[in-house]
Design goal:
Layout (H helix, E strand, L loop, with lengths): L8 H24 L3 H5 L2 H83 L20 H26 L6 H8 L15 H31 L1 H10 L4
């Protein structure tokens, strides 16, 4: 009736079915009126009555369970509403616990440091220091042995120079005589030209020899002076003081 009017075909058909069913109900009631007393005394009626009682008891039990479940649901709903507050309190307590724990560990560390310092102070009171010999700068180096080291350096330098000269002579050979020139080239040597005073070659060679001699002498003198400086510790210490290294 909310959707259609009274003249709608579905409404008319539904009303006809209702009237027909109502008439059938009345006919059935009038027909069973005479048999009602016999039905009440029958075994089927007793069984149905027992079944109704069982169903009523089951309905009552289910109602009690429904009430308990509803109370439990209400309790859980209340706890669910309180859960954010509880979580916030838990977070605050956890943060406070962490801060308190950090402070406790810091204070414990400071306490241990204070105890160690106290023990060290108590132990240091029992120790007396006595200066036997004041500290001083050693006059002799602890190592290596300077004369031996300088001698090894001299031998190594001479060996390196001789080895380098030999290597250059082998790499770029120079003939110093007619026989050596013949051995190198395999050609006969017919004659040779000697150097004269006018050519200046002898003077140049003599000058190179004197230069080599003077340089070698200067190097030997420097080496001997350096060796003496290292052998005499007093001279070595005086030189170091004048140069500001001591």
């Amino acid at each position: 009736m909310f959707r259609f009017t009274d003249k709608h075909p579905d409404v008319k058909e539904t009303r006809r079915q209702i009237d027909e069913l109502t008439q059938q109900k009345q006919d059935a009631i009038s027909a069973s009126g005479s048999n009602n007393s016999d039905f009440r005394n029958s075994e089927l009626f007793q069984n149905l009555k027992l079944l109704i009682s069982q169903l009523e008891n089951e309905v009552a039990s289910l109602q009690v369970r429904e009430k308990a479940q509803l109370e439990k649901a209400a309790y859980l709903q209340e706890k669910l509403v309180q859960m954010p507050d509880v979580e916030a309190q838990l977070t605050g307590l956890t943060r406070s616990y962490d801060i308190t724990k950090a402070k406790y560990e810091e204070l414990l560390s400071r306490r241990e440091s204070a105890l160690i310092s106290q023990k060290v102070g108590a132990a240091s009171d029992d120790i007396t220091f006595r200066v036997v010999d004041p500290p001083r700068t050693p006059l002799k180096p602890s190592g290596p042995i300077r004369p031996l080291f300088l001698g090894m350096v001299l031998v190594a330098g001479l060996g390196t120079g001789l080895g380098l000269a030999f290597f250059v002579s082998q790499l770029y050979p120079v003939a110093t005589s007619a026989r050596q020139l013949y051995q190198i080239t395999g050609l006969p040597v017919l004659g040779g030209v000697t150097s004269t005073r006018q050519s200046g070659i002898s003077a140049s060679v003599r000058k190179e020899n004197w230069r080599f001699l003077w340089m070698s002498t200067a190097l030997v003198v420097c080496f001997l002076g350096f060796m003496a400086l290292n052998l005499d510790t007093s001279i070595h210490a005086r030189v170091m003081q004048e140069m500001g290294w001591l």
